Amino acid sequence: MKIYFILALIFLTNHCKDTTSSSTTLSNNPRNTVNPQKLINATGNTLATRFNPPLGYKRRKLPPASFGYFLRNLPLKPIGSKVMYYNGSFKKANVYEAVVDMEISNENLQQCADAVMRLRGEYLYAKKAYHEISFRLTNGFRMDYSEWIKGNRLAVEGNHTYWRMKSSPSNTYQDFRRYMEVVFAYASTISLSQSLKSKNLGELQIGDVFIQAGSPGHAVTVVDVAENDKGKKMFLLAQSYMPAQETQILRNFNDKNISPWYSGDIADKLFTPEWTFMSSHLKAW
Predict the structure, then answer these.
(1) Quick one: pLDDT at residue 6?
(2) Of 111, 131, 137, 261, which shows the fewest CB atoms inside 10 Å?
(3) What does pTM read for this prediction?
(4) Diameter of the chain by CA atoms?
């Protein structure tokens, strides 16, 4: 189980549901917007090379230093790989098309909101933008990686949260991963949602997040976008879930002709295999 602050107010956890509820019911009238086509390249080892855009859609060129470029080029495990849980067992629910090749720890920490923050943190660390790596914890405390690098570590005493010097200055990747694990333990869909900015669905771009804060809550990352000549968009989604598990690229059961792509032509609800979001749940960093 995750660790949470003992505060005067009781904070909701960020757990995603581990069973399907009525909120995950898919539409009874799947739309067939694109003719069946070869959307999956079995030999591709990155998101961009594994998934071809639907007919009539193209990926826009992105700057190599951008978050979108990082997400589009996420490494994937070989086709057919199973999602692994933190304890070494494998996910049985057939809700994903691919598994992101990114290790997770043996602690039950990297769940839904955590995977969103992991992708953002990995991008900023790879970019060496260490001063930009910062996440709000459930009690509002801002956990800056720049403090962690100095050797400061999180200290919690009752309702009081603060930095305490406990280690020598260091900035190895292992240090970064330890930092992220602490973030996962004390952050939530609630704190992440409060840190993000709401945006209109028509402005959707790579790196955006569909997030519903609560207990349970859920969050998924838009990891690629393709557009047609009329400006209509298709996008791919990545998630983790509960219990902690590897990040996965979701299938689209609501429109199998374009799966794993999702149409940006959404009225009010986005149906994903394990959660239903409202279009108003779209947010950005």
Answers:
(1) 40
(2) 131
(3) 0.90
(4) 59
